Amino acid sequence: MKISIVGTGYVGLVSGACFAETGIHTTCVDINKKKISKLKQGIIPIYEPGLDDLVENNVKKERLLFTTSLAESLTDCLAIFIAVGTPPDEDGSADLKYVLEVAREIGRNITDYIVIITKSTVPIGTAEKVRKACQEELDKRGAAIEFDVASNPEFLKEGAAIADFLRPERIVIGVDSPRAKGVLEKIYKPFLLNGHPIIFMNIASSELTKYAANSMLATRISFMNDIANLCDIVGGDINMVRKGIGADSRIGNKFLYAGIGYGGSCFPKDVKALIKTGKDYNHPLTLLEAVETINDAQKAVLFNKLLHYFKGNISGKKIALWGLSFKPNTDDMREAPALTLIEKIQQAGGSVSAYDPVATEEARRILGDSIEYANDQYEAANNADALLIVTEWREFRMPHFDVLTKIMKHKAIFDGRNIFEHEDVLEHGFHYECIGRNNNSYI
Question: Is 266 a catalytic residue?
């Protein structure tokens, strides 16, 4: 079996490598010649644990190919996945220009039946737009070639994407023809053998499922952050609240951790896009509007604590940041809380010294030389007036507080991820603040 995937970004490259791992002959297509050239040399453009080995193994076994020619990839191809970017417009809607251009190019080049599958995160109605764009090109050619369109949203977590793809909790597929369903059942047969569920539905439901899933998770995060901020006021402990409500089987304990807001390429973009869809259909999604408002404010909570501690003045102070990526095990800094914190610290006259295990180069690309980049966490904290924990990388969880005591100019730690225990920090003489927790409990 042969399939193609258009787009070698995060979703396209991970999907291509994982499909190849199941034995499917997979061709990844991208118009970026430099990127394709590097991929052919084994140079992976993104950081994802295990991806480099997976790509190398399947390239060696000739199950995974890279090309800039979509037309060449269509030869004997049974299905083609569209996994190009859908960046948000200013109004929050997903920009479909890349998706539709791929659909038009498919229409200009197919010679036999094929299933076109949208894997990019796209709003309701995109499949019909893809169908129309492809058909228009076929009509221009005067070619009567049958094709189907399907929706197959991805549910990959950055940092655990390979496991998510190869051992998915569910596979969601939207189809409107038995023939397309048969093709996708064949493609995903290796997953059926391992007992992973495939949920077939109509296309509109499939397109909505991805947005609804990410928006639900974002809602849980914003809810817990809002409750954590209330805990700070009334003397509650968000960790105890989390355990108390998470023990309810109707709620569960996933995504109930308080922090400094969500970021990345999915949650912010998908929440905005679903809000825009609601407005387009005259059905305002007021709950999600509140989720977005809470998250935007939450990114500034750690800065507000810092500013309050220094009585409103951090001018000339050096602030150390541990972590830059929006979450551990990725170098992704899209919508990262670190960017909000850095901007606010600099606007208030402070300077920033930061360390991140993998995101330094991405930060340098975004921020240039506006901050200091340290080689390790202690170099970042050296002579700092305060330390901010921004990303919960594992190597930050058990620091040498005695070393920090000696190297920091001022002993103040602001923990945006609640990774430390009060007593561990306080016994070393630090001022310590976190999110939604207090130190007045005897438990």
Answer: yes
